[in-house]
């Protein structure tokens, strides 16, 4: 499906976003670590995170979301979202969306308010069951750690389908295991992409991976694209900030042409060939995002491999606009509903 630009995201979204993306408000510094409000300790390969991030804790009597341990050894978990109870019916099963949050692999988690609210919106408006994965962060756990956590999440969903007595009740009672989608935003979309590749080699029966949803997918390479050069000083995700995220996330000593970052680096290899087996894919992006050229490159790569790809790419906007502009969010939810 050709990239069809739509109306520009509203200006009000930019105002609200700057209050949350703290690095977007500090135009005085060009240091990526200062923008991210992080301090890197190379001796321990660890990050001190000072960015103020709002989180949403769950009440014990929360009726629409709950936290479940995923892998105690890795200290990972999932946050499950469901529609309001009045809309639930054991007869009308719901699709499952396995979701991965953004943050450049180094920031945020499943309880971060922007991702909590986004997942709840998906669960309510589609409707669907959303399994949001709280994966390990880099640099303390560099890639492929997050991909391994994604596989844990896929197997966890499979286990709920097979354990009819002790499985998680929300999943067991309301999930349509034949309609499972893998979705992520930004770095989470990168995780979703690699999770789908790994899923092709897993026995997940009775779970069926029906599609892949990439929202503002985060990829890169050593060579700058035109959109990165044009938006070199972008206040929301400047290329220099992306570079630091990749430096902290990739295996030590790797460049941005590593296959985790640049899928075309293995276009004719194992992962490149597997990409052609993805059932269908929806890519969501904005021309105001420095990453847009890479997203379009990914669309073309998948289409050349025979993947059925749908796109929703808007004029204007910025990286993360969907979380702050109500009209854009409503349109995105509509696109998800049509795709699913």
From TrEMBL:
It comes from the Eukaryota. Coiled coil: none annotated. InterPro entries: AB_hydrolase_3 (IPR013094), AB_hydrolase_fold (IPR029058), Carboxylest/Gibb_receptor (IPR050466), Lipase_GDXG_HIS_AS (IPR002168). Residues 97-321 form the Alpha/beta hydrolase fold-3 domain. Keywords: Hydrolase. GO terms for molecular function: hydrolase activity. The keyword Transport does not apply. PROSITE patterns: LIPASE_GDXG_HIS (PS01173). Belongs to the 'GDXG' lipolytic enzyme family. This is Alpha/beta hydrolase fold-3 domain-containing protein. The lineage of its organism: Eukaryota, Viridiplantae, Streptophyta, Embryophyta, Tracheophyta.
């Amino acid at each position: 499906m050709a990239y069809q630009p739509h109306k520009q995201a509203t200006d009000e979204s930019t105002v609200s976003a700057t209050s949350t993306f703290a690095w977007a408000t500090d135009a005085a510094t060009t240091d990526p670590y200062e923008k991210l409000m992080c301090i890197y300790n190379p001796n321990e390969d660890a990050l001190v995170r000072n960015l103020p991030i709002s989180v949403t804790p769950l009440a014990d009597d929360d009726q629409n979301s709950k936290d479940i341990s995923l892998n105690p050894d890795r200290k990972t978990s999932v946050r499950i979202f469901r529609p309001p109870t009045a809309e639930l019916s054991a007869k009308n099963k719901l699709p499952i969306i396995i979701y991965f949050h953004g943050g450049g692999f180094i920031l945020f988690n499943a309880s971060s308010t922007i991702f909590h609210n986004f997942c709840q919106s998906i669960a309510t408006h589609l409707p669907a069951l959303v399994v949001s994965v709280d994966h390990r962060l880099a640099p303390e756990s560099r890639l492929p750690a997050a991909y391994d956590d994604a596989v844990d999440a896929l197997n966890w969903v499979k286990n709920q389908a097979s354990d009819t007595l002790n499985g998680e009740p929300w999943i067991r009672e309301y999930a349509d295991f034949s309609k499972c989608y893998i979705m992520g935003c930004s770095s989470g979309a990168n995780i979703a992409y690699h999770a789908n590749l790994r899923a092709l080699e897993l026995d997940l029966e009775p779970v069926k991976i029906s599609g892949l949803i990439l929202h503002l997918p985060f990829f890169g390479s050593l060579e700058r694209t035109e959109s990165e050069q044009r938006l070199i000083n972008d206040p929301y995700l400047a290329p220099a900030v992306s570079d630091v995220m990749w430096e902290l996330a990739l295996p030590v000593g790797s460049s941005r042409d590593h296959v985790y970052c640049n899928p075309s680096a293995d276009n004719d290899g194992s992962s490149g060939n597997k990409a052609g087996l993805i059932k269908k894919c929806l890519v969501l992006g904005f021309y105001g995002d420095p990453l847009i050229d890479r997203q379009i490159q990914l669309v073309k790569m998948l289409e050349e491999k025979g993947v059925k790809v749908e796109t929703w790419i808007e004029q204007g906007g910025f990286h993360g606009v969907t979380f702050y502009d109500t009209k854009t969010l409503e349109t995105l939810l509509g696109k998800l509903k049509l795709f699913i």
